[in-house]
User: Fold this.
Amino acid sequence: MELLYEELMDHYKDPRNYGVLKDFDIKESDSNPLCGDEILFTIKLEDERIKDIKFSGAGCAISRSSDSILTEYVKGRSINEILKMSNDDFLKIYGFKPSAMRVKCALLGFIALKKAILRYLNQPIKNVP
Assistant:
């Protein structure tokens, strides 16, 4: 458990893929008004795959570390593969099951990413939790 905590804190203190792409195909922001977490994604696609992705914003350790892990995981993956993933699938990748009150922190970026892809595909986003 201590190793997991150290890894999550490393992603929080030194997030991977943090920043904003200058050349992007998708831009999406979202927030959790209950806790103040905010996320902005810029995404570059190539052949319906995520070629590059950056995130920026403010958030707690859970939110920021999950966004960092998410961006590492999705690089090179197809957007359809990402859309098929469930919240539970992502929480397994994240490796830490937060308390019920903090699950929204861990899922903010994942849900925002799915919304971004759906907007890009001109599909409704109402079914994204």
In short: Strands lie at 26-32, 37-46, 49-56. Residues 42 and 101 are 28 Å apart (CA to CA).
